[in-house]
Amino acid sequence: MADVNLLVAGAGGGIVAALRAQELGLSVAVIDANEHFLRANNTAMSTAMIPGAGSLFQNEAGVEDSPEIFAEDVRYKTKGRANPVVTDALSRISAPLVEWLAGSLKLPLELVTDFEYPGHTRHRCHTVPGRHGTILLGMLHRVARERGIDIVVPARLVAARHQDDALVAVTEAPDGTTEEISCDALVLATNGFGADAALVAEHIPEIAGAVYHGSEASRGDALSIGRTFGAAVDCLDAYQGHGALSLSSILVGWATVMHGGFIVNTSGGRFADETQGYSEFAALELTQPDHRAFIIFDQRIHDACLAFEDFRQTKASGVLRQGDSAAELAGRLNLPAGRLEASFAQAAAGRRGATDPHGRSRWGDADLAAPFYGVEVRPALFHTQGGLAVDAAARVLDAAGEPIAGLYAAGGAAVGMSGRGADGYLAGNGLLAALGLSFIAAEDVGRRLAGR
Ligand SMILES: Cc1cc2nc3c(=O)[nH]c(=O)nc-3n(C[C@H](O)[C@H](O)[C@H](O)COP(=O)(O)OP(=O)(O)OC[C@H]3O[C@@H](n4cnc5c(N)ncnc54)[C@H](O)[C@@H]3O)c2cc1C
After folding, report:
1. Which of 339, 355, 381 lies at the terminal end of a domain, its last residue?
2. Residue identifier of the C-alpha nearest atom 19 of ligand 1
3. Does 206 fall in a domain?
4. How far is C-alpha 229 from the chain's CA centre?
5. 321: domain CATH number?
6. Does this UniProt record's set of keywords contain Flavoprotein (predicted)?
7. Ligand 1 atom at minimal distance to the Cα of residue 433
8. What is the CA(254)–ligand 1 centre distance, in A?
């Protein structure tokens, strides 16, 4: 008999697999390589946006949505290049997932309706008050603690193998001592390979020059362990970049743009349609002089963004610059005043319906009005979105497309729903792949063991 029914490697989104599996009556254990995971992993670093298409929260807010509409948004944003099986599975589970988080785990979720995220045709991102991953992950782990789920740290999964009907996971402590845990099923929830510069340069050269702003534990362990089982991989060039990381390494947030702000380079001029998406904007910023860019907004946008913990911290870090006119702001940011004034004029004309030279059509609810704000940002890589090939039950597939017995993958360890490159990423689809595939994996293990 195995030590546990389900072993989860990675206590970020993977904690959902343990929580759900335990509800289904399975014995569970969780290991994590980093004892500081509650602050240091990507789930903790995130803005805590989780899409749920057709959720009760949407119904209450009068938002009409469905898994089909969501999947269509994904197909459109990814230009049809997202893994269709995973896209459908995650679109379908998204509403039950957020309802389970709110209902069974009692998380105080709310639907974000104060602005639109690029690519989502409906308000469908759900979040916790404060809108920060540390809050979300802290809540998930508080429930796990209350329910007696042990998290073994620091214990890095370094290998796994089949033995009889079970899997044996080999874990390693920082002093090099190893232990073996046998399990009926293993969920690889160890995230992607963003922290491994060589792997990033190999699979995603376009973003290799950006700052990496994600978990240092994302070293591609799932890929290397999966390969020992003959696992297939999919969409390894997919990633989430971000064009709004401040010089204090805190996220300014794309709400600045979606509320009507714009982005200029060191010449003071705009260079692209900012509303196309923050992920692809990182690679665009990398093409600008010295890789430098500045988000420009006003008091109305500033006040609206205070709903975000990240924005509040950006402000507290002292990197925002303010000016009572475009020229004064240009002086504070060291930008040519004439070009920056021309960019303000472009934004005002765009709001009045003039054709924008960069193709932008959405300019927020009101004209920008003084006082104005500006903040320097640098292009960043947040996480990779490709990984082990999985089916609709989160089972890892081999090169022939057959499931590998007992092996599951979730989150950055698995292929997500972001297609190829950067431009397929929709807000929330990282956490949805993390929490959603974990949930799906637990349900599949529950079904499989119930039938045994
Ligand atoms: C700044 C930022 C903002 C973001 N905002 C959002 C957002 O609002 N919405 C959204 O959907 N996505 C967002 N993302 C992306 C999202 O955070 C990730 O897609 C998601 O959290 C990945 O979850 P995960 O469980 O795969 O990885 P993680 O949360 O990183 O968890 C993986 C865990 O595995 C551990 N680990 C690694 N290797 C091993 C090993 N060999 N053995 C044991 N443990 C191991 C790590 O220590 C870590 O704790 C954001 C990312 C960043 C960086």
Report:
1. 381
2. 430
3. no
4. 27
5. 3.90.700.10
6. yes
7. 19
8. 19
Q: What is the domain extent for residue 166?
A: 4-194+387-450
Task: List, in order, residues 6 or more apart from 200 with CB less than 8 Å away.
Answer: 193, 194, 207, 208, 212, 381, 384
Backbone angles phi, psi at 16, to 5 degrees: -65, -35
Number of domains forming the structure of the chain: 2
Beta strand segments in 372-415, E:
372-384, 387-388, 395-397, 403-409
Ligand 1 centroid, distance to 168 Cα (angstroms): 24
pLDDT band at residue 451 using 50, 70 and 90 as cut-offs: confident
For the chain, the average pLDDT equals: 96
Q: From the CA of 43, how far away is ligand 1's center (Å)?
A: 4
290 contacts: CB under 8 Å, gap ≥ 6: 266
Q: Which atom of ligand 1 sits closest to the CA of residue 44?
A: 29
- Domain boundary (381, 407, 423) is at 381
Q: Which is nearest to 231 in space by CA: 49, 413, 380?
A: 413
Ligand 1 atom at shortest distance from the alpha carbon of 171: 42
- pLDDT grade for 114, boundaries at 50, 70 and 90: confident
